Amino acid sequence: MSVSIKFYKIAFVGLIPLILISCIEQGMDQGKPPLVARNEQGFTNSSYGYQDLKLSDTYYQISYQTPLLSTNDAMFGYQSKVDQERQRAIDFALWRTAQLSLEKGYPYFLVENQTTDAKTVVEREVYYRPIGPGYPASMMWSRSRVPPFYRGWPYHDPWREDYNQRTRVQILVQFNAKLLKTSEVNSMDAKNTIEKMQQLYGLFSYPAR
């Protein structure tokens, strides 16, 4: 009985470093919160988030840009991913507008002149399929031309060159928002908008990488 208890204690102690490493990795890989301010104008690969530009006391230009997002994992294809991210960007722009509206003391707002742009970036990474000794010499390249990550092989085959392709998309939404004291036709309730977005995206975050 004591031997079994001792074994479990040793096993548990041995698992502690693995648990700590896992927690550290998860902490380092935390996602990006969607509602952050950005300073750059237009499309920029390095930044994302909302931007407020004051046009008058009750009139603002609101924009929201997503990070560069991979579309390779899209279940229903590239266009479905773009449509999904476009709607999400619109929602985040509305969320920010509702926050701004309440901050300025206006319970309603009206969206005008909405535009949406999408930028697609295609990245292609070439790699080489290695071969072993004995392959016909005329079909080989020397080791000096083999990429560093395949230097463990004596030769590689130039005809077996291949590539991985990654497509990423970035969405930019922009509209003008009129802040209102009373409700108008097509206006939105700022408080209700915030509550709705919190329900939809309260736990959402963009991928950290």
Can you describe this structure?
This protein has three helices and six strands. The protein is α+β, with helices and mostly antiparallel strands. Strands 1, 2, 3, 4, 5 and 6 form a six-stranded antiparallel beta sheet that branches. α2 crosses α3 (190-201). It is elongated. Mean pLDDT is 76; it is low at 17-28, 134-146 and 150-156.
List the helices and strands and how they pair.
Blueprint: H1 2-28, E1 49-56, E2 59-65, E3 69-70, H2 78-103, E4 108-131, E5 155-180, E6 188-189, H3 190-201
Antiparallel strand pairs: 1-2, 2-5, 3-5, 4-5, 4-6
Helix pairs in contact: 2-3
Mean pLDDT: 76
Count of helix runs: 3
How would you sum up the global shape? elongated
Class inferred from helices and paired strands = alpha+beta
Distance between the termini: 49 Å
Q: Could you describe the largest sheet, including whether it forms a barrel?
A: 6 strands, antiparallel
**Could you tell me the number of beta strands?**
6
In short:
The protein has 209 residues and is of the alpha+beta class.
What key phrases describe this protein's structure?
209 residues, alpha+beta, 6-stranded antiparallel beta sheet, 6 strands
